[in-house]
Every structure is written in C-alpha cells, then in structure tokens.
C-alpha cells in the first residue's frame, strides 16, 4: 500500500505540469491504472476565454468594430459561427494562428487595396494583438485565411 501511495504522490506532482489527473475514486484498488488527461475542454470550462475584437478600416461597407465570442459563440460579428470556424481551422498546437508573415518571405507584388484590420483579445488562453493589411500576395493570403473573421474582399482589387 505504501508503494501505491508513493505512486499517487508522483502522479499528482506530474499532473501539475502535464495536465489534470484523471478522476479516480479514492477507494480505487492498487491495480487501477491512472492516466493523465488533457485540461478540460467543455464550453463551461472555457466560457469567455475566446474573445476577439475586430476593427476593419478602409473596406467600405465592412468597416467597423465587431465583438466575437467563441466556445460558446456570440457577439456583434455578422457571422459568429463562420468566424469562429475560421480561427479554429487556423489554430494548431504550437503555432500562432495570428502570426505575421515572416519577414524573409518572397511575396507577389499584388496590391489588394487599402483595407486594414486590427484584431485584439484572447484566443486559446493567449493574448492577441495583430494587424492585417492587403499590401502584397502574402498579406492577402494571410487575410483570406481568416475570412469570415475578416471580411471577404476577394483576391485583390
């Protein structure tokens, strides 16, 4: 029994850095296998965690500031479901879905118009403060990956 208790202490200490320890009754037998589980993923555990403010300028009718909440969805964005899906689609473990175009990128010199967007808030527990423009092919592609979070302005003007 002492061996089992020692294993429980080690497992609990590991859980603090790796994730939450799977729930197991305190009366479990010594042969019960304990596993580490990922952090909670229920909507009620994340409520308010994914909130973005999107300000669009120089895009005509799409200009303005809109609020977006995801998981669960809500806000003043005209396409809450589509916008949340666009950001979810671009979210990968270890990658910033809002990352700027790398400075050493070779981009086509296509001008997509004067539209800009500023996105702030919190996504997946991390702060967001980024800008978008349509100054070249790479920036247009970056913008288009986030449609409909950002307005669909086509491939260029």
Automatic annotation (TrEMBL):
It is found in: Secreted. Residues 26-48 are annotated as: Disordered. The keyword rRNA-binding does not apply. Keywords: Disulfide bond, Protease inhibitor, Secreted, Serine protease inhibitor, Signal. Gene3D superfamilies: Subtilisin inhibitor-like. Residues 1-22 form the signal peptide. InterPro entries: Subtilisin_inhibitor (IPR023549), Subtilisin_inhibitor-like_sf (IPR036819). The keyword Membrane does not apply. Its main location: secreted. Residues 53-132 form the Subtilisin inhibitor domain. Belongs to the protease inhibitor I16 (SSI) family. This is SSI family serine proteinase inhibitor. The lineage of its organism: Bacteria, Bacillati, Actinomycetota, Actinomycetes, Kitasatosporales.
